[in-house]
Amino acid sequence: MKNETKNWLYYANNDIHMISNNINTDDPEATGAIAVFCQQAVEKYFKAYLVEHSVDFPKTHDLLNLYNKIKAIKSWDIDETILASLNGLYIKTRYPSDIGAMPSGNMPTLDETKGFIDFAKKIESIFKEEILL
Hints:
- 61% of the residues lie in helices and 0% in strands.
- The chain is mainly α.
- The chain is globular, with a radius of gyration of 14 Å.
């Protein structure tokens, strides 16, 4: 595995660790932060995969753009509707109204957040099957 891939993987695993420590939350105040960690983990796994396959990508946080580059290598069996929802969670600013909010401006519900957690863990699993085995 390339060193740069290992670096992306290290940070993706840190995000998954944060998610795992909060996976059983019933705190509706935590959903935005947890969802952002899910978005960040998926982004870093995507970038690690692309780096490992020597695919250039622009500085972006756009999961759909990154996944389109991955599909040029190999299509993963993922729910692109969830990917699109998760894509909208990247924090572009540090203003309180933007942090962890869905494109609608609302915080994700507990059910949505649990779906994002499951999705991020699925991406982790796919990445590890594709790269680490």
